[in-house]
């Protein structure tokens, strides 16, 4: 019983840690998108998209999907992690060598000159950096350093943001600046993971394990065409829509995916943690029960999440994309519904990864590709932009059905077919109602009533397992407070929270930022009175975000500079000093322009380097001593 409880606790804790890293990085990505659209032309954005597509296609081939094998074999208790990581690095180096031979030949021949242009060398470095970043981050999860994995995601995004400001805004390097920022961020995050995770301890080319190489390669090789097939499936909607309907229709379709991508992103946080748990529990006695319980909870979460997105799809599209792309809300509900089966398909795919049956992943991916392309050819010319969303639903439904039957031959867990059918009927009703809001004026009022009613029904049918899971992982104090409130008061609070969210969404958008500012000020005040640095710094960061949203970035820098100065006078602190230095640079930039800001930043950096030289030297000496000590213990690492 205790072992079973620890398995669920591990899954939930890993999900929360990965969610922390993912949400933080996604918030920072919003800043990047606004910078790209403001400082890069449409042509430059188009080139960036092509480069991204080329890299996505080359990455599985260059890395040979060894990152998946690194995590799978790294989690295996019977395998030496030093040999696993060494094989992962060796395969990457071999892929880099192969790409280094092929790419110059392709560039010189001019075969792909339209797509590569003068970017071939940068694309090569881009792929090298991205490949190492993938392998190293997967290995951190394999050796149970999930916190470091999450922090590295935030570090990578912060570095990308800093590089974007430097290369695109300040130096105005355009597309090259875009690539420089991503390459630098990936390389520096790899260096961060290498040092923080002490990964040099896991590399030993002198004792290279060829037998393990064959095992890992036989595991990862079927995943290469499987990944490429999913890329074909996901890209065929775009390419075929462009072919049949033109670029304008493709733009509308791409915006329709945005809310559906939110669902997929939220699920990805659970999916990454689930992949680890599936491998670790593959040989446990209660494996089948564990898989069944997790899939049951997974279903309940997905149904509530998708129903919530269908409920707010129309107003959210209006606020997020504006009048120009309002039509995209017509097709978004069908794509949101498709995420139910795409996420369930990912869940089933984890069973193949955990049981070393990756060949089956290839076969089922092939089914998706054939159905997707065939239906797009038939539907797009006949029903226009409704074709790709319907095709996506049918493709994922077909793959999920095949995997549900096939994977349960390996792990015969309970699927809950009745729950699956009943909830999908409710979600289909919501999907039709959401589409009818834009396509049928006579059904508009009925749809506006149907959507909230169906959402309440879906939530009531699925909330119990989710609530029980939340209560299990809640700290004891919070759980006690919730139990004292009782069910009636909790329902009232939930209704009030929903009303507040609706006010923020429909009536007064600034209400959200005012609330954030008030909460952040309270958190900071609590941190000052209790002398807890984390609360003080968190409150200051929240105030910065609130002032930025309402009054602009330079006013936010000025406000945080004043807060940092007061906090420093009260109690000097390295973190507060660092925050104040950044805010001083930003304030001077806003007052006197970028050159004054850069000059101030250079002076501050120079002073910091002189002041911190002794501390850095001492840290470096300790690092070298530890590295030398680890070399003597090379035989003790698993």
Q: What fraction of the residues are assigned to beta strands by DSSP?
A: under 5%
* Element order: H for helix, E for strand: HHHHHHHHHHHHHHHHHHHHHHHH
The number of helical runs is 24
**Low confidence ranges:** none
- Give the tally of structural domains: 4
The major sheet is characterized as: none
The amount of helix comes to: over 70%
Count all strands and give the number. 0
Mean pLDDT: 75
Shape field: globular
Radius of gyration: 26 Å
Question: What's the structural blueprint in terms of helices and strands?
Answer:
Layout: H1 2-39, H2 42-63, H3 66-74, H4 81-109, H5 113-116, H6 120-142, H7 146-170, H8 174-196, H9 210-220, H10 223-245, H11 247-280, H12 287-321, H13 332-354, H14 358-383, H15 387-410, H16 417-439, H17 444-473, H18 476-507, H19 510-530, H20 533-551, H21 553-570, H22 574-592, H23 594-611, H24 613-632
Characterize the structure shown.
The protein has 638 residues and is mainly alpha-helical. Helices cover 86% and strands 0% of the residues. It has 24 helices and no strands. Helix 12 (287-321) runs antiparallel to helix 13. The chain is globular. The mean pLDDT is 75.
